[in-house]
UniProtKB/TrEMBL annotation:
Species annotation: Flexivirga endophytica
Swiss-Prot/TrEMBL GO biological process terms: phosphorelay signal transduction system; regulation of DNA-templated transcription
Residues covered by the Response regulatory domain: 1-116
GO terms for MF: DNA binding
Modified residues (4-aspartylphosphate): 51
Keywords from the UniProt entry: DNA-binding, Phosphoprotein, Transcription, Transcription regulation
Transmembrane segments: none
Leader sequence segment: none
Domain HTH luxR-type: from-to ranges: 143-208
Protein name: DNA-binding response regulator
């Protein structure tokens, strides 16, 4: 994985935590967003641990640039600042998780493994709260015709993705095979032009397919 933080002491601490795990290793360090993008393009790390406040290029902009690439890494945003607008922007850009720097070592390594496996590292209830707060202050996006065109089954699968259910859990709730759910998920991502389940969750909240705090369809 790649570490991106402008403080050498922070990077040293993270590297010590990560490199002591048998299944994790740090391949490079970046001291700002520009270097993070350049190193990621060259080294192709599986996961980038990205700080937000960095010189030359901030972590949010760097995340957007990284995730515009083909074969882009998973991005886990890590910061000392619990800002709802930053969380929303990071998730909207496609970041797979958001953690504060006061997490314990075991929480950090578990989060890295989670995003590397393609899952989201942010509780669905927290995701909903952040998105709801952001949309209240900044306004709801214009209706997307792609949301209207979804079938009832596709909307239900998308709703359950936003609520944090795994493919196996969705399959159990909807009485479908796991392979069938995977097909629905892949079809949804393609139809909505989304890169992963994180962006699918944001889309679902933005378009009222799931209402924050309520496990029901809007």
């Amino acid at each position: 994985m790649l570490l991106a933080d402008d403080q050498a002491l922070v990077r040293d601490g993270f590297r010590a935590i990560i490199d002591r795990e048998a299944d994790l290793s740090v391949v490079a360090e970046a001291c700002d967003g520009v270097e993070a993008v350049e190193l990621s393009r060259r080294l192709r790390p599986e996961v980038v641990l990205m700080d937000i406040r960095m010189p030359r290029l901030d972590g949010l902009t760097a995340t957007r640039r990284l995730l515009e690439q083909s074969q882009s890494p998973k991005v886990l945003v890590l910061t000392t600042f619990d800002r709802n607008d930053w969380v929303y922007e990071a998730l909207h850009a496609g970041a797979s998780g958001f953690l504060l720097k006061d997490v314990r070592a075991s929480q950090l390594t578990d989060a890295i493994r989670t995003v590397a496996a393609g899952e989201t590292m942010l509780a669905p209830s927290i995701t909903g709260r952040f998105i709801a707060d952001y949309l209240t202050r900044h306004g709801i996006p214009d209706p997307d015709p792609k949301a209207i065109a979804l079938s009832q089954r596709e909307r239900e699968v998308l709703r359950r993705i936003a609520l944090g259910e795994s493919n196996a859990e969705i399959a159990g709730q909807l009485y479908l095979g796991v392979s069938t759910v995977k097909t629905y998920v892949n079809r949804l991502l393609t139809k909505l032009d989304l890169r992963d389940r994180t962006q699918a969750a944001v889309f679902a909240y933005e378009h009222g397919i799931v209402i924050p705090g309520h496990a029901r369809e809007g």
